[in-house]
Amino acid sequence: MTDTSRRSFLRGAAISGAGALVGGRVAAQAAPDPAITELQPWQQYLGEGVDARPYGMPSEHEAHVVRRDVPWLTADPVSSVNFTPLHELDGIITPNGLCFERHHGGIAEIDPGAYRLMINGLVDTPLVFTLDDLKRFPRENHAYFLECAANSGMEWRGAQLNGCQFTHGMIHNVMYTGVPLRLLLEEAGIKTAGKWILPEGADASAMTRSIPLEKALDDCLVAFKMNGEALRPEQGYPVRLVVPGWEGNMWVKWLRRIEIGDQPWHHREETSKYTDLLPDGQARRFTWEMDAKSVITNPSPQAPITHGPGPTVLTGIAWSGRGTIPRVDVTLDGGATWARARMSGPSFDKSMHRFYYEFDWDGRPLLLQSRAHDSTGYVQPTKDMLREVRGENSIYHNNGIQTWAVNEQGVAENVEVSS
């Protein structure tokens, strides 16, 4: 069949097919669609060969799917944050190149051949490991979320940032590969007085955090891979600590030293920072676990409804630092009525969960919310419920229910509703 006769055939088929049922709806377009009836440029010439892109990259048409920052949040980008584009993603795994970044002294570029990890303090035998040494220990693979304690922190006093990338994007979820920390600690031998560990980073900020020994021996990993490949430099290459379910500041990147002690150290990042200021001026300390939380990623301010009234797919993510998420409720009317969302995909401990809710949008305004239930029975609270207990002076651990207002044109905006 010649190109001319093929186009004539397809054009005729498209016209004769107009009015047929498509997905339960009548196709409204009767005119020929050039995207179907005409040969497209990519059909008329050979593409690049297998060696043209040795490390695969996204399509040029996805160039807008990137991490973004909010310039006014911090004074200097070397001690700042950018955000995961949650509204552009699906499933539960965050691509390595889109995992949010939070740095306190910029990215440390470390030669893996010169990398060393020291374990000292209250141990029987102080030890130093090379990267090759670590890889000789038994390793494990786990999918965990990492959430900055300041995620949604700008929203404590009211709606601030217009997009779930900016309100909730200080989180990612990847498959970590690493050595259980307990194996390294057992190798060094912990003295009876040892109750705490102090991991330290090799970056210019020398990040440190106190972690109870019980957690270190439970599920912490010394990780060197994420989603199957080596850690990215901005994620701690060549080695970082993984502290499942606990605030991201404790997941020390560029891990160089672990000291064993008999009490917490109370360094800067666990005293003046990463504590929750209460209305009376006192601060909660050691609020490590990240409570159950969820957000609708589509529709949302950066992902409006563009197809008009009719069948609509709502989707989002939920997570808990205390277990799994067996259930998420969604509301289209600001909490007046709730429906149970459909969970889809794997349900891992301390990992993201994906939910969907399909509905027919009638074109009227919507007030969208999601409410997560975790495996301990905890239910995600409203922002007003949080403020009743903790006031409005906090920055960290805001897991309140998020509201998007969608207008008749399908445009979404960050708002709050009283509850």
UniProtKB/TrEMBL annotation:
GO terms under biological process: sulfur compound metabolic process
Keyword Protease: no
Pfam annotation, one family: Mo-co_dimer
Lineage: Bacteria, Pseudomonadati, Pseudomonadota, Alphaproteobacteria, Rhodobacterales
Domain Moybdenum cofactor oxidoreductase dimerisation positions: 285-402
Keywords: Metal-binding, Molybdenum, Oxidoreductase
SUPFAM superfamilies assigned: E set domains, Oxidoreductase molybdopterin-binding domain
Name of the protein: Sulfoxide reductase catalytic subunit YedY
Cofactor entry: Mo-molybdopterin
Residue span(s) of domain Oxidoreductase molybdopterin-binding: 104-265
Recorded GO MF terms: heme binding; molybdenum ion binding; molybdopterin cofactor binding; sulfite oxidase activity
Gene: yedY_1
